[in-house]
Amino acid sequence: MDSINLILLAEFPGRQHQIELLSQLISQPYQTGVPFLYINGHTATGKTSIISRFFELYQLEFQNELLQTDLTNKKKIIPNYAIIDCTECTSTKVLFRKALKPWLGLQNEYTTKATEYTKCDTVLDNAEKLRDLDALFIPSLLQITDMIDLSIIMLSSTTWDNIRPLATTSPEPISIYFTQYTKNDILNILKFDCPKDEPIPFFCTFVDSLHETFRRSCIDLNELRRIVLLLYPKYVQPVFEGQATRNETARLFKLCQPYFIEAIDKLHLREISSYEWQKNSIQASAKNDYEKIEKSISNMLVDTGVQEFPYLTKYLLISSFISSFNPPKLDLQYFAKTTEKKRRVKRGITLLKDSRGGKRRQQLIGPKAFPLDRMLAIFYKLLDFPGFPTIDLYTQISSLVMLKLLIKSSSEESLDSIKYKCNFSFEFVSEISKSVGFEIGKFLYDFC
Fold first, then answer.
1. What local confidence, expressed as pLDDT, does residue 40 receive?
2. Strands 370-371 and 419-422
3. d(CA 26, CA 420)
4. Contact assessment for residue 183 and residue 175, using Cβ atoms and an 8 Å cutoff
5. Strand ordering across the sheet containing 174-178
6. How does strand 406-408 pair with strand 370-371?
7. What digits encode the pLDDT tens for the residues 141-185?
8. Strand order in the sheet with 370-371
9. How far is residue 282's CA from residue 291's CA, in Å, rounded to a whole number?
10. pLDDT at position 154, please?
11. What's the CA gap between 155 and 145, in Å, rounded?
12. pLDDT at residue 286, rounded to an integer
């Protein structure tokens, strides 16, 4: 087990405590293991990677030991494991079959040899999906560990209390918590992504500065690795073009600054795909001036899927943006007919003021929640339909919620007053407005 620990510590920096606990809890093949182990932590903390690599080395080591050692006076142990992604299992039958397959397969293979028996470990990744299955599944699976030499290991991003079946009793697991990576751990991990032809100190300088830029908005290691992979070619490009040397760090970051700024808005927020970024960023070069670089990157949004929205869905997005950023008092001013405006002109409209007496900009405050009825009323006014449209608006709204373009801000129980909030920028809704020939600036309070 010591050799396994050394390999894992070299491959996974910052996980010494967790690796030592694993080696202690997952016993030797000749010993009885822990029946139930629960591993939880935030996403991208190395849970699945470390467990997969651990059992790969674990099985390989003891298979070699069986070949090199004479065990005629002992029972031969054949360790085996299975890693199951719970998101792929649609029913308890499928999950039971996958969980017991390694043990049943080895039992059938070695039933004729009385001096041999099997030891199996079943790893259930994304264990929070088990909540969608039968409430008796987890207790039933854990009872099997009392009958055969089978260990259950669950990997999840949530705690055991959120998965524990409430209607039945189940044994308490031994828990291992994977903490968030520190800055030094992240830099040591990203060091493995350095290209073969590039010097590691130069690459680490870039990674350190990139982490300082994105650490407030991105703590996901997988996301940081993706951004490093896409931005490093633009950082080192001036070196190959003769615009700067590797020692001129300040100049390199000055030339790469437009990409950093645009990456936060477009790349990190998925307004543009990795493929489109690589395809379109080739047009920009350090030999160009800043305006050309920024223009080249800004034009990447042209083919980012805005044209793929249905026509009426675009107006739903426009209506939601207006509902989030316009005060409800001004709906009559923007959308009422001329006769209605004259009828209410005596009442007047009180404009929103800040503490200094100036006009308060809603764009700086952020989107506000709005009731569904208000958004639909604006939607019908913008399109000026004589009757209801043929599409199912509620299905379209549900799709926008799934795409995270709309966020439901009310509870599930309050069906009479469902409220939403838009979750996209002004630049995004401007592109949508241009695609349908709509001038959204005329209907926003901030631009009047």
1. 92
2. antiparallel
3. 48
4. no
5. 76-85, 116-125, 150-156, 36-41, 174-178
6. unpaired
7. 888 777 777 788 999 988 888 888 776 677 888 999 999 998 899
8. 370-371, 419-422, 406-408
9. 15
10. 92
11. 18
12. 43
Q: Give mean pLDDT, residues 44-52.
A: 90
Is 2-178 CATH 3.40.190.150? no
pLDDT in tens, 90-108: 788 888 777 777 666 555 5
Structure tokens at 239: 């070196």
Place of tokens 């923007």: 334
**Per-domain boundaries in the chain:** 2-178, 183-303, 308-447
Among residues 201, 103, 206, the alpha carbon closest in space to that of 152 is found at 103
CA 200 to the chain's CA centroid = 28
Strand partners, 368: none
Q: Is the pTM of this model over 0.90?
A: no
pLDDT band at 32 (very low <50, low <70, confident <90, very high): low
How far is the C-alpha of 302 from the C-alpha of 43, rounded, in Å? 32
Residues 6+ apart with CB under 8 A from 217: 264, 268
Provide the mean pLDDT of the chain: 75
